[in-house]
């Protein structure tokens, strides 16, 4: 019911503003740190109306780890500048799968990542791509991104670690570049995996990095 | 939830001798695993945001990010103080407050989506003005929000609450129905009267298209919130007077689904029709977006 009365948010639009904050936050968490630089490509209605809806400041707010009702959102561009974050926007002409689509290419101190997401209405989002991998998740639950090489037994080892800590997997997907090549496994969980599980997942042979996306903390669940 | 229609909700109220608000609080506690106190305190924090948005909209003179709108809430509020509004003072206050919250939304201020950001002014307009008028403590209004939430939940599950899916009737229309039903309950009406208020209100907004100029939540969204608050008061009064919705409210919700499903895409938030494509609507869009490359 708190989606009918709620969420608490900075206006003007749940899809173009609140949803954009959430995509930005998910992208930041996929990078694993606050980005130093961000190239943001907007598609469809995002490209056409982003200034009036504040989609630009909303995305950058997410990169700064603000929640959807943070009153600093309107001034996010200057906050980003003083935090040393370089941001570039591009309004793309070519159509995308969903009218409210954004692709964020982020660079941090140690890593780079590209995250593509859609705002599908009412503040709900769908992440549809990470780097060159296909993905599809709504970030409504704690979501693990495990970047690894494709080999037999990998999924069993990952799920074994989650099993041992009683984290239930609600949805799981794997995309790989090629057989035995680089792969991304996306694991949506009913419980929040702790730092111990993240560490153990990272120690699996062939796992390159592990990221946790969890948007719950700043969305009024307190 | 133990109910999916307004008729079932009303039946639950009657079986348990409880108002809509109390049924909804118990259901929400059961579904979420949170305690009733936790849920109530979250709703109370939402009501505080609504009151603050009313205050900001009237006194802080917000301008929208696009520069298209702002100041109408204050205009109506000043007019009410200086002249005798045709609506009467109380309805004019509700209208001013609804405009205020919608203007705060357009200015990137903090609001509660009820059920969406586009219709965020109606419930605060009705609730905050009624609180001042009747001297209710916050608890009455917080419980009222649960009643509104229950009604909105039924509408969302049987029809839609977003303009992109069902047009403005689904956003502003739903908010009017939610506000009207909740107001009936807060004023001591029965659950049956509250349900009639929902049907009466929804019938009045059937077919309303979503045609935002330049795609922004401003023109005509803000004034529709002002009108919406007044309509909610009217529907609540009719229901409290004993007027019934001859077509049961659940069936009216079904009509909203039928009409919204038949609505062309250009009238569902795309800014490809309606007011957005009038000569002036197009001119505004061109002035906003036509200057140079948006990058």
Derived structural class of chain A: alpha+beta
What string gives the helices and strands of chain B in order? HHHHHEHHHHHHHH
Number of strands of chain B: 1
Q: Count the domains of chain B.
A: 1
Beta content of chain B comes to under 5%
Mean pLDDT of chain B: 95
Radius of gyration of chain A: 17 Å
Stretches of chain B where pLDDT is under 50 for at least 5 consecutive residues are none
| Shape category of chain B | globular
How many domains make up the coordinates of chain A? 2
CATH architecture call of chain B = Orthogonal Bundle
Radius of gyration of chain B: 19 Å
CATH architecture of the largest domain in chain A: 2-Layer Sandwich
Classification by helices and strands of chain B: mainly alpha
CATH T-level fold name of chain B: 2-methylcitrate dehydratase PrpD
- How large is the share of residues in beta strands of chain A? 25-35%
Largest inter-chain interface?
Answer: A-B, 38 and 52 residues
- Please provide the count of β strands of chain A: 11
Number of helices of chain B: 13
> Mind summarizing the main beta sheet of chain B?
none
Plain-language structure description:
- Chain A folds into two domains: 14-131, D-3-phosphoglycerate dehydrogenase, domain 3 (60s Ribosomal Protein L30, Chain: A, 2-Layer Sandwich), CATH 3.30.1330; 143-213, Alpha-Beta Plaits (2-Layer Sandwich), CATH 3.30.70.260.
- In chain A, helix 1 packs parallel to helix 3 (55-63).
- In chain A, strands 3-2-4-5-6-7 form a six-stranded mixed beta sheet.
- Chain A is of the alpha+beta class and 222 residues long.
- Chain A has six helices and eleven strands.
- The longest helix of chain A is centred in the N-terminal third of the chain and has 18 residues, at 14-31.
- With 295 residues, chain B is an all-alpha fold.
- The termini of chain B are far apart.
- The mean pLDDT of chain B is 95.
- The chains are: A alpha+beta (222), B mainly alpha (295).
- At the A-B interface, strand 1, helix 1, helix 2 and strand 3 of A face helix 2, helix 3, helix 5, strand 1 and helix 7 of B.
């Amino acid at each position: 019911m708190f989606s009918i009365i709620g969420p608490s948010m900075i206006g003007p639009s749940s899809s173009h503003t609140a949803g954009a904050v959430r995509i930005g936050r998910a992208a930041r968490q996929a990078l694993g740190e606050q980005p130093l630089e961000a190239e943001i490509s907007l598609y469809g209605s995002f490209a056409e109306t982003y200034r009036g809806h504040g989609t630009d400041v909303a995305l950058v707010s997410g990169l700064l780890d603000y929640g959807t009702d943070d009153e600093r959102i309107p001034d996010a561009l200057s906050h980003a500048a003083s935090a040393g974050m370089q941001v570039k926007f591009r309004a793309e002409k070519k159509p995308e799968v969903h009218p409210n689509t954004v692709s964020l290419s982020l660079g941090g101190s140690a890593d780079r990542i590209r995250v593509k997401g859609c705002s599908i209405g009412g503040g709900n989002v769908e992440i549809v791509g990470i780097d060159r991998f296909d993905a599809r998740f709504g970030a409504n639950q704690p979501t693990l991104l495990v970047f690894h090489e494709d080999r037999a037994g990998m999924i069993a080892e990952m799920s074994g670690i989650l099993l041992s800590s009683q984290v239930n997997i609600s949805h799981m997907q794997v995309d790989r570049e090629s057989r035995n090549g680089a792969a991304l496994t996306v694991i949506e969980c009913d419980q929040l995996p702790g730092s111990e599980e993240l560490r153990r997942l990272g120690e699996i042979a062939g796992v390159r990095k592990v990221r946790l996306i969890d948007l719950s903390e700043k969305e009024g669940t307190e | 939830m133990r109910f999916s229609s307004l008729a079932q909700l009303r039946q639950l109220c009657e079986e348990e001798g409880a108002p809509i608000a109390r049924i909804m609080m118990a259901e929400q506690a059961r579904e979420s695993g949170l305690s009733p106190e936790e849920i109530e305190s979250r709703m109370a924090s939402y009501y505080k945001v609504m009151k603050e948005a009313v205050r900001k909209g009237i006194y802080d003179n917000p301008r929208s990010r696009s520069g298209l709108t702002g100041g109408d809430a204050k205009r109506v509020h000043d007019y009410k103080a200086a002249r005798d509004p045709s609506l009467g003072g109380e309805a004019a206050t509700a209208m001013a407050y609804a405009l205020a919250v919608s203007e705060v939304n357009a200015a990137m201020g903090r609001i509660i989506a009820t059920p969406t950001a586009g219709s965020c002014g109606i419930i605060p307009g009705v609730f905050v003005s009624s609180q001042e008028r009747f001297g209710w403590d916050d608890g009455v209004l917080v419980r009222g929000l649960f009643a509104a939430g229950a009604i909105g939940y039924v509408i969302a599950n049987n029809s839609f609450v977003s303009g992109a899916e069902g047009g403005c009737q689904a956003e502003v229309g739903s908010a009017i129905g939610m506000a009207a039903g909740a107001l009936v309950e807060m004023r001591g009406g029965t659950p049956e009267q509250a349900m009639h208020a929902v049907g009466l209100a929804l019938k009045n907004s059937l077919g309303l298209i979503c045609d935002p100029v330049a795609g922004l939540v401003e023109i005509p969204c803000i004034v529709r919130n002002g009108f919406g608050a007044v309509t909610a008061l009217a529907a609540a009064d009719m229901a409290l007077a004993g007027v019934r919705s001859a077509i049961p409210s659940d069936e009216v919700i079904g009509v909203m689904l039928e009409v919204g499903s038949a609505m062309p895409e250009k009238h569902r938030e795309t800014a490809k029709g309606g007011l957005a494509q009038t000569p002036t609507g197009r001119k505004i869009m061109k002035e906003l977006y036509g200057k140079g490359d948006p990058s």
